[in-house]
């Protein structure tokens, strides 16, 4: 499987939509394969304090609206969420949103999903939080509905948390049978789901290498239970980078590639790179990291 490189862009704080669009166009120009945006209403105050923004005014652009706008200005780079928490949506609504952006992008959408991790965010917006087990169950139920809407003429489902009845979803996504579904998280149930039908795994940024290795082994071992070729499941760790310490970053990338990664994502947000430094960071990542490992 081809080795690829992508970037995770911040959509809040010092980053305006204009700076996001500029970064997206530059990433595409340099041949990076994918662009990812976090899907939140807002983030914890400490992240604004540390990486830019006002914790008293915790701004955050909507992920899918932003991706739709970027899709209309780009041509090749794939676009996805890292990740969309299914329990924060009505599954049918998310199915329609993602299908629409897939059409706008001419088939470049990738759906990253998870169960949610920031309780205050959910409570603030009136979304029931519940236990991790409940949120994971909601995620799986929601995905059954989403996949049904994308692939069937009419979808029906009556679950513990969600239901649809003879529901149409037209137009369908351009990608067949449907856009790739990635998973964030590291619980046993999530890793099992990746092995069963996930396109790939999106671990949290700077996941320790030993935790990543164990996750890869779990997913690959489980894949055989579902008669899947483990090599077709993409492991995509995200890393932070200090451009002034490139040698150390290259060593980390090499370690993750040797541990089973097939895609490396540069997290510009948690790297603490301000908008004025993004162009140079993307250039370094593309020319001095991606090019070096893809030769």
Structural overview:
With 295 residues, the protein is α/β, with parallel strands linked by helices. The chain has two domains: 1-78 and 236-295; 83-184, no CATH class. It has ten helices and twelve strands. Strands 1, 2, 3, 4, 5, 8, 9, 10, 11 and 12 form a ten-stranded parallel β-sheet that branches. A two-stranded antiparallel sheet has the order 6-7. Strand 9 (200-202), helix 8 and strand 10 (234-235) form a beta-alpha-beta unit. The longest helix is centred in the middle third of the chain and has 20 residues, at 132-151. The chain starts with a strand and ends with a helix. The mean pLDDT is 96.
Task: Please give a quick description of this structure.
This protein is of the alpha/beta class.
Number of strands: 12
Name the helicity range: 40-55%
CA-based gyration radius: 18 Å
Distance between termini?
A: 14 Å
* SS element count, helices: 10
Helix-strand pattern: EHEHHEEHEHHEEEHEHEEHEH
Major β-sheet, in short?
10 strands, parallel
Share of β-strand residues: 15-25%
Gross morphology is globular
Q: Topology, please?
A:
Elements: E1 4-9, H1 17-29, E2 34-37, H2 45-51, H3 63-71, E3 78-81, E4 84-85, H4 91-104, E5 109-114, H5 119-124, H6 132-151, E6 155-158, E7 163-167, E8 181-184, H7 188-197, E9 200-202, H8 209-225, E10 234-235, E11 238-239, H9 246-258, E12 263-267, H10 275-294
Parallel strand pairs: 1-2, 1-12, 2-3, 3-5, 4-5, 5-8, 8-9, 9-10, 11-12
Antiparallel strand pairs: 6-7
